[in-house]
Amino acid sequence: MSYLPISKRIAGYLSARTGISDEQEEIVTYFIEVTLINIFNTLNILLLGLFFGTLPGIITCLITVAMLRQTAGGAHSNSPWRCALITAVVFLSISVAASYLSHIKQIYLDSLAIAAVLIGTFLIILLAPVDSPSAPILSDARRKRLKIMALIIMGIISVAIILLRQSSWIYALEAQAAVVLSVFWTSFNLTRFGHHVMSYIDNLKIGSREVNH
């Protein structure tokens, strides 16, 4: 895997100061690379939300997905840059869709919320935590702990949906819709089909060149 020059420089500096091995320096470089990409991607997503006028929805999406992904896991791209691109496109799409859904009848939004919570809870019980080959969960105790934490997070999200429904905040319905769609997205990533879709995207090619963002 090729790394950004800044990631290599930071890792090289840390390696020189601590005297770690080449293998450990490679791990540190990867960690720094992913951290920088995540920071860049978060700022990029926020700017997109600001540009498209969907900032409340996109912030809600970021928080909701981050909470669930940290505990329930889900499908990942094998490229941090590709994963960042997919995340930016999906989060922007969710925030735009949430903006439109905030204008539908409340009973329809409530129905979507109930469906999202039920489906999400069911898939967490059935599948979570979903790990990745690069970061497998080997401990049964940790698996159980993450599953319980994911269910607690889903409970918190359910309460947040109810509070947003009753709130007088001008963006409450937009945020509620963003939470609902974010739960659907995270639930999708827990499934085998979600993994197949991510794998398909990873293997996409244009002509003879692999798509590699």
Rg computed from alpha carbons, rounded to a whole number of angstroms: 19 Å
State the major sheet: 2 strands, antiparallel
C-alpha geometry: globular
Quickly count the helices. Answer: 8
Count of domain modules: 2
Order of helices and strands: HHHHHHHHEE
The order of strands across the largest sheet is 1-2
Helix fraction, binned, reads: over 70%
First and last CA, distance: 13 Å
Organism: Desulfallas thermosapovorans DSM 6562
Transmembrane segments: 45-68, 80-101, 107-128, 148-164, 170-190
GO molecular function, one term: peptidase activity
Keywords: Cell membrane, Hydrolase, Membrane, Protease, Quorum sensing, Transmembrane, Transmembrane helix
Please, could you describe this protein's structure?
The chain is mainly alpha-helical. The chain folds into 2 domains: 1-52; 55-210, no CATH class. It contains 8 helices and 2 strands, in the order ααααααααββ. It has helices at 5-18, 22-52, 55-72, 80-101, 106-127, 140-166, 172-190, 192-202; strands spanning 205-206, 209-210. A two-stranded antiparallel ribbon has the order 1-2. α3 crosses α4. The longest helix has 31 residues, at 22-52. It is globular, with a radius of gyration of 19 Å. The two termini are 13 Å apart. Keywords: Cell membrane, Hydrolase, Membrane, Protease, Quorum sensing, Transmembrane, Transmembrane helix.
List keywords for this structure.
213 residues; mainly alpha; 2 domains; two-stranded antiparallel sheet; 8 helices; 77% helix; 2% strand; disordered C terminus
In short:
This protein has helices at 5-18, 22-52, 55-72, 80-101, 106-127, 140-166, 172-190, 192-202; strands at residues 205-206, 209-210. It has 213 residues and is mostly helical.
